[in-house]
Write a structure and sequence with these properties.
This protein is mostly beta strands. Helices cover about 10% and strands about 45% of the residues. The protein has 1 helix and 10 strands, in the order H-E-E-E-E-E-E-E-E-E-E. A hairpin with a 5-residue loop joins strand 4 and strand 5 (about 75).
Amino acid sequence: MRKLLAICALALFTTACSTRETGPEYVTFPEISNVVAQPAVVTDKDRVTVTADVKNLYGSFKVYIYYRVGNGPFTTTPSQEFEPTEKTVHYAGWIPAQPAGSTVEWVVRCLNNPYGLLQQTEVRSYRVVESDSSED
């Protein structure tokens, strides 16, 4: 009987001391939509402009592009910080020009700063072609 009481007391104590919150801000991920990359055909002289609409109801958040060239390491572009809002914000970021023949894989990421919720788009890619040298 004492053992059972000790186990129940420990269970109650553990539950009471739990610091894990369960409100919507801990489980509601940011939303990323309307992702567009321009230009449609990318040359070795083009930086690629990526735009997206982002909504995050809870806590400040930052949005950035996470990309890699070929099988190289992923690189993060400078992030843009936003305050929490019920409205959708418009993000614009850039991937620098890359050598002709390169394949670039990228995603848009949104990190909800205070709650650590990371959302990202599906992986997208493009192949860089050589620019027409007669246009120089």
